[in-house]
Amino acid sequence: MAVMTYIDASRQAVAEEMRRDPMVWAVGEDLGRGGVFGQYKGLVDEFGPDRISDAPISESCIMGAAVGAAMTGTRPIVEMRFSDFALCAVDELVNQAAKARYMFGGQTRVPLVVREPIGMWRSSAAQHSQSLEAWYAHIPGLVVAVPSTPADNRALLKAAIRCDDPVVFMEHKNLWALGGDVPDGDDVAEFGKARAVREGKDLTIVSWSAAVHTATEAATTLAGEGIEAEVLDLRTLWPWDKDAVLASVERTGRLLVVQEAVSVAGFGAEVAATVAENLHPALKAPVKRLGAPRIPISYAPVLEDQVRITADAIAAAARGLVKT
Amino acid sequence: MAARAKSGTRRASAAKSGSKPKSPAAAKSRAPAKKSSRGSPATDFSQDQELEAYREMLLIRRFEEKAGQMYGMGLIGGFCHLYIGQEAVVVGMQMVAKDGDQVITGYRDHGHMLACGMDPKGVMAELTGRRGGYSKGKGGSMHMFSVEKGFFGGHGIVGGQVSLGTGLAFANKYRGNDNISFTYFGDGASNQGQVYESFNMAKLWKLPVIYVIENNKYGMGTSISRSSATTDLSHRGASFDIPGEQVDGMDVRAVHAAGDKAAAWCREGNGPYILEMLTYRYRGHSMSDPAKYRSKEEVQKMRQEHDPIEQVKARLLEAHATDEDALKDIDRKVRSIVNEAAEFAQTDPEPDPSELWTDILR
User: Fold this and answer.
1) Is residue B240's pLDDT more than 50?
2) Cα angle: A188, vertex A193, A197; to 5 degrees
């Protein structure tokens, strides 16, 4: 076990996979200088500019070329820098990468990882802060990974690189510096397995990405008041661990979904609906979602903070459910 | 599905992995490429080449006519874009392709698949949505793929294949082989944005890709003069210093000559090349298009004066003094292949309902 940051864990995953398989390569803007956040720092020194490839600012062609190269059996990692920028390449991802295997009756596969960081950090405003994970969870053919810890960033990224289907890999920009224990060795995650961050009997809080940490903070506060919240980190939104969520809510009788994304038509709606459809008689309270209002993210901190889900808000919602 | 044995044209085979990657980014810039020029002169074909072109073009023509009939009978549904009139383009280009090269195109793709050596039965059965179709009935007319034959689809979004084709070329460079990506698109797609991102990247990294622009003069129902600020599409790579030329796409010899030159350019590591094929589709954009945006006379004139198959036939009979019976024999064989494909496509069972859930991560 080693302690490392979320960003270092991802860098280690890429380096190890590139050493393991010469067909793994990365392409994106400014990768040679380490990537916009430093995720690729030093990798060009080891692997050279052929495999850590600096591309023009042409997201559509970066994604399309990677899809084509993946169809021949190479394994590109596409760096889109921000999930907001990746929208320039949605056609290539949604119409080409996601469809090819099925549409061609299994004649081809697209082993592609698309890294597109999500989330608010500070004052990045409407076009650099979005959490668009639900868009891709909606698309058949795509895997959606949303790691919340350094260990998961390494293990899920390794799994994504080894996956023969396209994976939308959404790291949270506010987590880059987060430290944590990372297992040694070749730790490769299994998609669709949630992690119980904390066990509890009174309610289940389902979350993913950075919101997991806010939910965990709220759970600690609640524990001081005698409310035991179980916190589940979904880790991947497709496939998602329906069984773990249903089993937990069956025990606790209460569900609170916490997401940073806009709540309307967010992935929390899928979780809430699934629980409501399957566990209605076992529920002690109506299902509850917490997420951002349907409003673009503002620049001014005072406005930006209004759309953040805080630990206080989560604790308040949990108290409301337990009282019911 | 068994591939139809076919002489002459080169077979593409599945790309192999493992060779040492070459630098796409570090390639040194060479002397500026030649600017756009008009027309590679058509060089004479041998009798064997003429016969090969005749057979391949006729197969596409008869296949497409049959597909049109079957569409009219309700056996084929949805979108179906016929290649009739444009046969010389893909046939001439495939005559310069070699093993391991890739072909990728849009939705007017039946001709490309046949020219790549894909089985007509598998193609026709996909049109009728049967389990023996190349995509097991899940793709239809616009979406078929064959790793074995080097055909990378079959894409339904106008221009969407252009960046993918650029990536096929990237993979060739990465593996350090001398294969080429033949990336086809139409005059309509040439106004899509990702085409220019692709041009820049292909030139920057010296990628081995021939962009074959099939200019059939109409993007759906809008003529090129009404849709395009400049109509000489061979110049579209000028600001990236990509050489380009206009080619008589109705003359398979001119296509072959231009393709040969472009392929040599790419295989020598000089980067991309643009060939604008001046061609014509006799039918509407798709089966649901009566093509009222052009006159009957315009279509008649092209058919009578420029038909790619009639040109070859005339040369075979006159210049090569080919026995007419030999041509009739080819006609018979082609009809029999097409009829067999049509028969298979109607008798092969529909997909099992369980097929819905295969070929996808659930």
Assistant:
1) yes
2) 100
pTM of the model: 0.90
The structure tokens listed for B32 are 């500026």
Average pLDDT over residues B181-199: 97
Match 């790309």 to its residue by tokens: B15
Q: Does A141 touch chain B (CB under 8 A)?
A: yes
Alpha-carbon gap, residue B255 to B44, rounded angstroms? 12
DSSP A210-228: THHHHHHHHHHHHHHTT--
For A103, name the nearest residue in chain B, comparing CA atoms only.
B139
pLDDT above 70 (res B20): no
List the single best residue of B355, B361, B362 to mutate versus A (max A Cβ within 10 A): B361
As a whole number of angstroms, the distance between CA A241 and CA A239 comes to: 7
Q: Which amino acid is at B14?
A: A
Token code pair at residue B290: 């009566």
Nearest to B139 among A58, A95, A105 (CB): A105
Q: How many CB atoms lie within 10 A of CB B320?
A: 16
Name the token pair of B1. 């599905």
Q: Which residues of A touch B156 (CB under 8 A)?
A: 95
Q: What is the pLDDT of residues B38-88, one digit of tens each?
A: 556 678 999 999 999 999 999 999 999 999 999 999 999 999 999 999 999
When CB atoms are compared, the residue of A23, A60, A141 closest to B197 is: A60
Contact A72 B135 (CB under 8 A): no
Is B23 a residue whose pLDDT tops 90? Answer: no
C-beta atoms surrounding A8 within 10 Å: 21
Is residue B125 pLDDT above 60, yes or no?
yes
Query: Cα A118 vs. chain centroid, distance in angstroms?
Result: 8
Residue B317 per-residue DSSP state: H
| SS3 at position B252 | helix
- Give the tokens for residue A229: 């919240």
Q: Which pLDDT score, from 0 to 100, does residue A203 have?
A: 98
The complex scores an ipTM of 0.89
Q: Which residues pair with A181 in a beta bridge?
A: A3
Q: How many residues does chain A have?
A: 324
| Structural domains for chain A | 2-182 (3.40.50.970), 195-323 (3.40.50.920)
Angle, vertex CA B183, rays to CA B181 and CA B186, nearest 5: 170
Cα gap A243→A192, rounded to integer Å: 10
